[in-house]
Design goal:
The protein has helices spanning 2-8, 17-21, 32-58, 63-72, 74-79, 81-85, 94-116, 126-135, 140-149, 158-206. The radius of gyration is 21 Å and the shape is globular. It is built from 10 helices and no strands. Helix 3 crosses helix 7. It is an all-alpha fold and 207 residues long.
Amino acid sequence: NLLAKAQQGTARCFASHHDAYFDGLVKEPLQKSELRELAEALPIVETVVADALVILLAGTAPREAVASSLSRLQAALQDSGLAHRLSHFGWRRWEDLLEDLARIRAAQFRELYRLETGSLKGPFEAAELRKSLADAGLDAGKVRTSLEALKWSFQDSSVLRESDWKVLGRQQRQEKAAAVLGKMLTYGMVALAMGASLFHLRTALEN
């Protein structure tokens, strides 16, 4: 797989799509030790995150109980490769993760479930929702399988769906704005670096 190739030196891995786009110009590729930690941490932490979403959606435990469980795993969550990968989503603490799961990821999964079970198409594509969940460390298929094992169903309504659309629209705008800002900052850093290089070259030529 890609992690194995990266550890063998036949491929390079970066912490984000943004870093990979600039191919090491902004940030160096992940080191072998970082890749090893990422490979070890992802399965455990992603399972915890997926289980938390399942519990929140199914309502099998109060939100306070989920918060208590996540708080006990705070150190593991914060130090995991997944946490570093998801830092651009705005969560660095378990409280941020809980809010993200309960509000945004739950809305994404409900809308994806609607589309996969025959509801009329809305403003968001199933593939888009599935990718966003995956980027957040959530396998929509596994979440659905777990929920179906619990005989999950939810009382849907036009009001709930419109509320989910508002949440998803706001999240989509925030992610686009963050991406634009990130590119602007990166281009600025590249311009500064090129300017500094030209300045040193000019100085060396004059001397």
